[in-house]
């Protein structure tokens, strides 16, 4: 007898149910995966319109509707003058200063100053706000503002009145070469160094092309510069074969670009804001070599300020440890380290007493110190955090009087030099370090190179904050760094 | 002997009382459940409605010591001042979530923002924002930079920012970051980009 395999009906139903379940599960899985990927995908690049006018500099988001670029009308006008608007059904009535206008949703015809005006695309309303096509700005805005407007549509930069800043280039081809870029008004670019050159990004300055977008220099080190505009920003790239750094002068109207090596040997690096890369690479110098070149009779006075004290405990670093106690112990060690390197040291408190921030700044200023070091402590991060004041750099020759809140401005270049030197010494000792800026008093009130050093836990955790050995390592790094730059930070009169 | 109809009536009344008791108990429990969220100390802000917009929030990361730009889709009201307030409240909610990279107190709130022409903004924080803020140069500065940069990036024309606490000037946020002076937007943004 032979048995043959007969397909069972029950088996076939179970099989098809299993198939359906499998199909539903796999479809669900792929749908879920697709939704997750879509949610996690980065948002498309936002585009901006930069507006430069004598009263305000700002940027606005640009949105695309039906293949055309639009920008918010109220957002565009609000920073420039007094604006009021009324939305009545599909019509938006708007008043800018004394100018009346009316726009209708979906229509290109508008009325401005009582006369018809044709937009390049229909007027839109989104979220109760009127949107106008970008390429109508150059014709529409003069009707509101009564002044000429220049709009660069490709780079999305709008100039109201004559606010543009023109750069001019001058290369001093001596060895080492020095490129001076002079602007017709103060500028504040973001400067970054990268292999093969230096980039200046003007996000808020109405910088325009120097005439030609590419300028070649007859020099082997600094070869050429390129000007470009994109997404509301202007950019100047300087190409070079050696690493470059930039410094500001003449009230930020002049940027001098030179090689890092040349700047450090000439001792002129930081009459302004060196780029972040330059700060990191700036060699602090050899203490022994610097010491031998300095005049032994000129002792630099260092003011060491252990923050907090008395009733003002500072941060609670643990249940029983207050910041004021750590800063005092650390300050005593730093005083010893500085004194052994030939500094005179003024400790602003040597016990658990409190004094106001103004009193501390006044004491440092009255002493005409060469450098001021504010000491703090934190339970977060590791190693040390070194801060300079969060202030704009001011040019020299501002007179003998300084504004109290920005007294530090003129000394900022040398403060940054000291900060970079401390970071370099910390790194030499394999101690983590972070360099940053902070709106911190009395740092901003002292008229001398000034840094704040915030002691953070070492590899041993919070216990390191009170460890004499750990504090000694950090204090020694700070003292070595200040010794290496003592010729720059100033001598006691 | 008690009449039969009276017994039935009493039994029906008893069933009614018991069922009413059970019903009341359930209603009270439900009312208690509804009341509990209102007792929360979280700040209550009227939700904005309408179409959403893409904004860039600058979110502080304590470990890295930096601000990280983050795009968010949020509904924003029409007025410039209300937009600014909603923007910073959205930022605040990120910091109040469990596991935030820069935690702030759950009771911290923005009382209001005043936009003063030309180009000045005043942020008024509530007392809990400052009183319960962690103390330290980095953490306080990150909070300030995050507020200033987020506001200036999304509300056009702001060049200077002042920060008040409960409508009054305050020396520092939590012992370090100076709030007595005006923050220059360009300087703050540039410090963040370096």
Task: Produce the secondary structure layout.
The complex is a heterodimer of chains A (about 500) and B (about 190).
Chain A: H1 9-40, E1 47-52, E2 57-65, E3 68-72, H2 73-77, E4 83-88, E5 91-96, E6 99-104, E7 109-112, E8 115-118, E9 124-126, E10 129-133, H3 137-145, E11 149-152, E12 157-160, E13 167-172, E14 178-183, E15 190-194, E16 197-202, E17 214-216, E18 222-230, E19 233-240, E20 244-249, E21 254-259, H4 260-266, H5 276-281, H6 287-293, E22 301-306, H7 323-340, E23 344-347, H8 357-366, E24 371-377, E25 384-389, H9 412-428, E26 433-438, E27 450-455, H10 468-484, H11 486-489
Parallel strand pairs in A: 1-12, 22-23, 22-24, 24-27, 25-26
Antiparallel strand pairs in A: 1-2, 2-3, 3-10, 4-5, 5-6, 6-7, 7-8, 9-10, 11-12, 13-14, 14-21, 15-16, 16-19, 17-18, 18-19, 20-21, 25-27
Chain B: H1 4-38, E1 52-61, E2 66-75, H2 80-95, E3 110-116, E4 120-125, H3 127-131, H4 137-154, E5 160-165, E6 183-184, H5 185-193
Parallel strand pairs in B: 4-5
Antiparallel strand pairs in B: 1-2, 3-4, 5-6
Spell out the key features of this protein.
heterodimer, A: 493 residues, alpha+beta, Copper Amine Oxidase, Chain A, domain 1, Immunoglobulin-like, Aminopeptidase, 6-stranded mixed sheet, 11 helices, 27 strands, globular, B: 194 residues, 2 domains, 4-stranded mixed sheet, two-stranded antiparallel ribbon, 5 helices, 6 strands, elongated
Would you mind describing this structure in some detail?
- The complex is a heterodimer of chains A (493) and B (194).
- Chain A has 493 residues and is of the alpha+beta class.
- Chain A has three domains: 114 residues, Copper amine oxidase-like, N-terminal domain (Copper Amine Oxidase, Chain A, domain 1), CATH 3.30.457.10; 110 residues, Immunoglobulin-like (Sandwich), CATH 2.60.40.3470; 203 residues, Aminopeptidase (3-Layer(aba) Sandwich).
- In chain A, 27% of the residues lie in helices and 31% in strands.
- In chain A, α7 crosses α10.
- The longest helix of chain A has 32 residues.
- Chain A is globular, with a radius of gyration of 31 Å.
- Chain B is α+β, with helices and mostly antiparallel strands.
- Chain B folds into two domains: 40 residues; 142 residues, no CATH class.
- Chain B is 43% helix and 21% strand.
- In chain B, β1 and β2 form a beta hairpin.
- The radius of gyration of chain B is 26 Å and the shape is elongated.
- About 6% of the residues of chain B have low confidence.
- Classes of the chains: A alpha+beta (493), B alpha+beta (194).
């Amino acid at each position: 007898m032979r048995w043959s395999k007969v397909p069972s009906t029950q088996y076939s139903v179970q099989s098809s149910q299993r198939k359906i379940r499998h199909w539903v599960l796999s479809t669900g899985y792929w749908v879920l995966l697709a939704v997750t990927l879509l949610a996690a995908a980065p948002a498309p690049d936002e585009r901006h319109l930069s507006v430069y006018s004598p009263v305000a500099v700002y940027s606005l988001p640009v949105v695309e509707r039906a293949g055309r670029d639009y920008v918010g009308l109220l957002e565009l006008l609000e920073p420039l003058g007094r604006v009021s608007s009324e939305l009545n059904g599909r019509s938006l009535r708007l008043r800018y200063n004394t100018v009346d206008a009316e726009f209708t949703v979906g229509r290109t015809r508008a009325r401005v100053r009582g006369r018809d005006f044709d937009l390049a695309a229909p007027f839109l309303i989104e979220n109760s706000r009127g949107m106008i096509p970008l390429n109508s700005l150059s014709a529409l805005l003069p009707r509101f503002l009564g002044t000429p407007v220049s709009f660069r549509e490709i780079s999305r930069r709008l100039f109201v009145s004559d606010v543009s800043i023109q750069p001019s280039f001058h290369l001093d081809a001596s060895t080492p070469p020095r490129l001076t870029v002079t602007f017709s008004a103060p500028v504040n670019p973001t400067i970054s160094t990268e292999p093969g050159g230096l980039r200046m990004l003007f996000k808020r300055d109405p910088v325009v092309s120097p005439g030609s977008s590419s300028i070649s220099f007859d020099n082997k080190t600094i070869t050429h510069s390129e000007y470009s505009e994109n997404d509301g920003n202007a950019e100047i790239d300087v190409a070079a074969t050696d690493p470059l750094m930039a410094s500001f002068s003449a009230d930020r109207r002049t940027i001098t670009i030179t090689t890092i090596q040349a700047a450090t040997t000439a001792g002129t690096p930081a009459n302004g804001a060196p780029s972040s890369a330059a700060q990191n690479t700036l060699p602090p110098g050899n203490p022994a070599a610097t010491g031998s070149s300095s005049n032994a009779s000129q002792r630099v006075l260092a003011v060491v300020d252990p923050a907090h004290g008395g009733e003002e405990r500072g941060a609670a670093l643990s249940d029983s440890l207050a910041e004021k106690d750590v800063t005092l112990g650390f300050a005593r060690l730093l005083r010893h380290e500085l004194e052994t390197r030939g500094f005179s040291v003024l400790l602003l408190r040597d016990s658990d007493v409190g004094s106001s921030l103004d009193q501390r700044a006044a004491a440092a200023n009255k002493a005409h110190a060469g450098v001021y070091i504010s000491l703090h402590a934190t339970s977060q991060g590791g190693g040390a955090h070194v801060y300079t004041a969060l202030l704009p750099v001011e040019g020299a020759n501002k007179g003998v009087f300084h504004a109290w809140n920005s007294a530090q401005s003129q000394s900022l270049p040398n403060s940054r030099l000291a900060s970079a030197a401390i970071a370099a010494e910390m790194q030499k000792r394999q101690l983590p370090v972070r360099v940053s800026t902070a709106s911190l008093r009395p740092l901003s009130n002292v008229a001398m190179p000034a840094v704040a050093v915030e002691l953070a836990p070492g590899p041993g955790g919070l216990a390191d904050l009170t460890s004499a050995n750990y504090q000694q390592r950090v204090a020694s790094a700070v003292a070595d760094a200040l010794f290496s730059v003592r010729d720059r930070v100033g001598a006691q009169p | 002997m008690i009449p039969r109809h009276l017994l039935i009536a009493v039994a029906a009344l008893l069933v009614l009382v018991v069922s009413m008791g059970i019903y009341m108990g359930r209603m009270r429990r439900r009312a208690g459940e509804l009341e509990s969220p209102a007792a929360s100390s979280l700040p209550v802000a009227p939700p904005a409605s309408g179409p959403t917009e893409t904004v860039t929030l600058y979110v502080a990361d304590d470990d890295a010591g930096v601000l990280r730009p983050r795009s968010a889709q949020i509904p924003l009201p029409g007025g410039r001042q209300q937009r600014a307030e909603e923007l910073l409240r959205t930022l605040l909610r990120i910091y109040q979530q469990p596991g935030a990279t820069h935690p702030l107190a759950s009771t911290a709130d923005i009382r209001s923002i005043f936009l003063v022409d030309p180009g000045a903004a005043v942020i008024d924080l509530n007392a809990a924002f400052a009183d319960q803020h962690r103390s330290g140069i980095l953490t306080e500065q990150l909070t300030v930079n995050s507020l200033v940069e987020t506001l200036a990036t999304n509300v056009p024309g702001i060049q200077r920012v002042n920060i008040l606490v409960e409508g009054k000037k305050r020396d520092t946020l939590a012992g370090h970051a100076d709030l007595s002076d005006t923050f220059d937007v360009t300087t703050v943004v540039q410090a963040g980009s370096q």
